[in-house]
Amino acid sequence: MAPNTSSRILGFDIARAFAVFGMVIVNFKIAMEAQTGAAFWLGFASLFEGRASALFVILAGIGISLMTKKVRLEPHKPQIREAQVQLLKRALALFVIGLAYTPIWPADILHFYGVYFAIAAMLCFCSDRTVLLSCVGFVLGFVALLLVFDYDQGWDWASLTYTDLWTWQGLLRHMIFNGFHPVFPWAAFLLFGMWLGRKPLTDPVVQQRYAIISLAILIFTELSLLGLRVLGEQHFSMPIETINTLLTSNIIPPLPQYMLSAGSSAVFILMLCLGLGQRYSHLWLIRSLYRTGQLSLTLYIAHVFIGMGLLEAFNLLSGQSIEIALQSALIYCLGALVFSVIWLRFFTLGPCEWIFKKITR
């Protein structure tokens, strides 16, 4: 049975497909320890670090706004409470699934999603202003935590392992402050997505406006950081390593400039995907990407169990070049696209999406 596409916006699922592909590239690079190879391909792979996952989280926020739109426009206490309970069920399911998944893939994002969704349940019926202020609060809250606590605590950076994750203190620190996707500041991406999801994003004029604004912010942020690094190396009496940490948009640590850069790049890609979905929905590739995005949860989980499982079987999980890592990611992404098209000819939901729907209802 083919899925009903009439009530879905193709662009969102196309963006989810690209977000999954980007996360596969990043995670395969990490798992295969791909630190050698052509500078061009190393630079290409680095473009997705912390940006594909940011797009993924923003899309989740948009999804929450769309899911709660009817209740938000016609608020009644029983319906509000029901929507919040539904979000909390999803939060608990994501947290438990993700935490169980963490021993297999330490860089998992699903258990962080669980906390993001719990926060969303509290704020999804607040005003736009409150949501945006909360978004800023999480970004600045991370800076405050950084000034008080040791960001390196718990980390073995050489192996990218968190040494005391399975203690209450370590888990709390990892979740809130210095894990791969900590609540401070990463919950800001979800809240920004909730705010964005309240806008008329299907309007081409709005898409064009947001695309221009986000691209301008992205370029301004990156050029400003580049200029400050050059000045810093010439005039600041600080080690170059410190300058590069404080004046870059790298994901670790997730400083405000990273949030601004990754968020603006995610919005720009999203606006392009919305335009593609509206203008070229008749093309096979666009329809296939749309279907791939519908199976994003399944494909995310499968890229570890199946993708990295095959890499381990072929002894490719260490000391590989970036070219081998990108080729492996490309093969997985093409396989994911073909699988999604075939699966959705017979079923309305992906395997993990179906299970998730069952356990949250």
Automatic annotation (TrEMBL):
The keyword Thylakoid does not apply. Residues 257-360 form the DUF418 domain. The keyword Nuclease does not apply. The chain crosses the membrane at residues 12-32, 38-66, 87-104, 110-126, 131-151, 171-197, 209-231, 258-276, 297-317, 329-348. It comes from the Bacteria. Keywords: Membrane, Transmembrane, Transmembrane helix. Residues 8-205 form the Heparan-alpha-glucosaminide N-acetyltransferase catalytic domain. It holds the Pfam family DUF418. This is DUF418 domain-containing protein.
